[in-house]
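Re: the multi-chain job from yesterday

Posting the exact lines I submitted so nobody has to dig through the queue logs.
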Amino acid sequence: MTAALRVVVAVKYVPDIQSARAFEDRRLVRTSDDGTLNELDENAVEAALRLVEALPEDAREGSEVVVVTVGPPDAEAALRKAYQLGADRAVHVVDDALAGSDYHGTAVALAAAVQRLHDERPVDLVLTGMAALDGLGSVVPTLAASWLGWPAVGLVTEFELGDESVSATRELDGVTETVTIPRPAVVSVTDHANDPRFPNFKLIMAARTKPVDTWSLADLEETLERFAEDSGLPLPGVGGEGARARTTRAEPRPPRPETEVVTDKGEGGLALAEFLIRHELV
Amino acid sequence: MTSSRRTVLVHLDTPATELSSSALELLTIARSLGRVEAVALASPSLTTLAQLGAYGVELVRQAEVSDDLGPDAAHSTALVAEALARAADASGAAVVLLASTFPNKESAARLAFLTGAGLVIDAAAVAWAEDDGPSHARLVASKRVLAGSWDTSCEIVTDVAVLTVRANAVVPEPTEAAVETTVEGFAVVPSALAKAGVPTSREVHTVDHGDGPARPALAEAAVVVAGGRGTFGDFTPVEDLADALGAAVGATRDCVDEGWIGHDAQIGQTGVTVAPRVYIGAGISGAPHHRGGMQASQVIVAVNNDPDCPLFEISDLAVVGDLHEVLPQAAERIRAHRDGAA
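And the result, structure tokens for all chains:
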């Protein structure tokens, strides 16, 4: 590739997996106390930056890495983190009406933001992490690609851009697969795709004040209408009311029964075996 | 129409050979929800047909793709979605079930897009809620989330529901009276996206572990024995105990990064997620990423030198000791028990 590239990276703001994650009123709590850029999205940002850095200098000049998130006001922190890593521009789709959206609602809003960027100036590729560490659904990339009418491939460890295609290798359970799909496309990369960089001091300072575009649903309305017209499909609703799958219950699991501790003094293996036999697990 | 008469479609991952335990689990769940039909993208083998009959499935719909897309056509996740959408339309299905694998999540997403269906990923239980009478039944799916620390349920409010179901959610159970299964073809005209999604190359890894017995697939196994850094790269005791138990072998990411074991064995939020009846972790400290991939296991046993290892905190049995001593002794005792029982 020698031409300038425009790469969009879709990211998510999630509670840190080491924090005490919880639901409140059937919604996952995402606040500035423990919220962070989904760790797996750092691999997507890294992949985008490396694509641009590998270009000849004049093509690099005209290239852009745009990070996009759909999330509550605090989700801006995820975009700032992407700025620290080196993203050029950030778009935050934020609207009270989006709170409580299911996969469909989130994906159609994300797709509309990507479409709007694509209408401004063509997007070559959309990158995402392989999963968000809160919901672990891994379906938003495919759903967003469907609204865009673009192909998608997930769980990618290596990929290469052709003039009009992307050739991606992915590691499935016991299988290595290569798929070559036309661009623009949506590609989700795994944590084996690369080692994300650490932010440098200069970028950390700059990230604090760099402007973030905020788009409401009203800003995306025309695009959403076009999606409905082009696909002939009903638009999914957004928010908890619009969800096609509505969370009706969220309860913490009862604590595990107390751990039975055996210290091995030569019979630890027997104790393990007897435990399994006693519980009819053998 | 009452909920018990609704049609439930089950996608079969491996119809050309034989059905895996996760497919049989799907058929068991499906039977509790309504009249079951299966969908295959390849011609079902005699073994598969016998399994379907034993599970009470009278009809399997086989996709006949209009273009010759080669032997890997069924691995285009967009094509699978289009075939399932056609089958759902033809059968008037209210529910479509797939096993929770990564490619199936892609297929499920595109299918839900095409059909406007409510989508649930990694469901552990699925049932009709008939609070307002059978004619107003709604499908409710439950799942375990946040590394096994919370249970959630959601209600699907659309006419069609698409769900991926995690392995070991139920014990497979054949029906009391087996039936004859017939195959009916249906035409699928693939879109450009579906054609583009056919892999250009596909390499199946064969796991070589010498003369040992064949091991179950990690994601589906009822028993898993996993090793961590404490193995120091020697997985012999882990494999030996696994073989004594008929278990699958897993590992932490550390071990994969060290090159001690293949990537396919990695358990964790970014590897294989397991929820077996029994998980045995040896020499594993229990980092959050690993815990996220195994915490939904029913019984957890940990073996570690370090009495403060975090994995002990979520274990039912903690054995403080050297795995190189403990595991072989356990394997020997289990073999003796099995021989005695036989």
